[in-house]
């Protein structure tokens, strides 16, 4: 019953939001098209519920690169909006989180939910400790508990703890609370850049180093 009501809420809200935001999406698409070469929509393979892969959609905010040019294992983390990989339109889209709006279509398709753990890239699967596997029991979200607690300023393990906490607590009013907090976070623009905390790559390297010392 809880999952059915959540799905009904997702379909209703995402459908209405897509209709209302269509003019804004069209404007953003034109801006991206004239601002830099490449597709308007960026597609990326992500891991969703039950570890099933799907294609997440985002408005492109970076220069167009082929999959062969993107090394997810060693990709340098974006720490500010002056990164040369970010386009002019991308700076604004990232600062307002408008680049995430195409994921409303992912929600309508059933790949995602409005609230849930953020979908991870396949390379992150190997650095998720077993105690956090429950994050895959629900659909990934457009926003989530980790996003309202600090977004990228949270360390990797802190993000995973927030994800699993959400899985055990989620419900209609809890989701509404997270959505309202998300609005505040987006308006403030907090947590978009700056990874002073340990990200997943740094965590992976630390664990590998510790394993090497034990041997």
From TrEMBL:
Q: Which GO terms describe its molecular function?
A: phosphotransferase activity, for other substituted phosphate groups
Keywords attached to this Swiss-Prot or TrEMBL record, sorted alphabetically, are: Membrane, Transferase, Transmembrane, Transmembrane helix
Q: Does the keyword Transmembrane apply?
A: yes
TM region positions: 12-34
Q: Which family does it belong to?
A: Belongs to the bacterial sugar transferase family.
Q: Quote the protein name from its UniProt record.
A: Sugar transferase involved in LPS biosynthesis (Colanic, teichoic acid)
One Pfam match, given by its short name, reads Bac_transf
Give the superkingdom in one word: Bacteria
Domain Bacterial sugar transferase, first and last residues per copy:
6-188
